[in-house]
């Protein structure tokens, strides 16, 4: 039996869903904190964490895969490999955090803030 193998489809077809995840990943890496719906945040978390793991690996193949995963954005790929991956060098997963922040006033959708965990502050304290 294949239990728990499905992904959250977000009521979109494959191309629309991958484009959505790539754009959300770009925004998260650029701003390091974004506000979106809970369902989108939960779908984004494994996508971004796999990109950061590729960044920690650091080889050319991983760089090319991350480049494609970020819609071909060179500056964000550079930031992922040179800044974010080095920040989480000693961390084994769990690079993002999701906070529920209430309901959107227009359609009462449950909103959440997804952010990168701040390892840099903990390193400065040591």
What does this molecule look like?
There is one protein chain. This protein is α+β, with helices and mostly antiparallel strands and 126 residues long. The protein has a single domain (14-125), classed as Ribosomal protein L17 (50s Ribosomal Protein L17, Chain: A, Alpha-Beta Complex). Helices cover 55% and strands 16% of the residues. It has helices spanning 14-31, 38-57, 60-69, 74-87, 119-125, and strands at 33-37, 96-103, 110-116. A three-stranded antiparallel β-sheet has the order 1-3-2. Helix 1 (14-31) crosses helix 2, helix 2 packs antiparallel against helix 3 and helix 2 (38-57) packs across helix 4 (74-87). The model has no long low-confidence stretch (mean pLDDT 93).
Helix content: 40-55%
Separation, N- and C-terminal Cα atoms: 47 Å
Name the overall outline.
globular
Largest sheet, in brief, is:
3 strands, antiparallel
Tally of distinct domains: 1
The CATH class label is: Alpha Beta
For the structure shown, list the relevant keywords.
single chain; 126 residues; alpha+beta; 50s Ribosomal Protein L17, Chain: A; three-stranded antiparallel sheet; 5 helices; 3 strands; globular
Concise description?
The protein has 126 residues and is α+β, with helices and mostly antiparallel strands.
List the helices and strands and how they pair.
Blueprint: H1 14-31, E1 33-37, H2 38-57, H3 60-69, H4 74-87, E2 96-103, E3 110-116, H5 119-125
Antiparallel strand pairs: 1-3, 2-3
Helix pairs in contact: 1-2, 2-3, 2-4
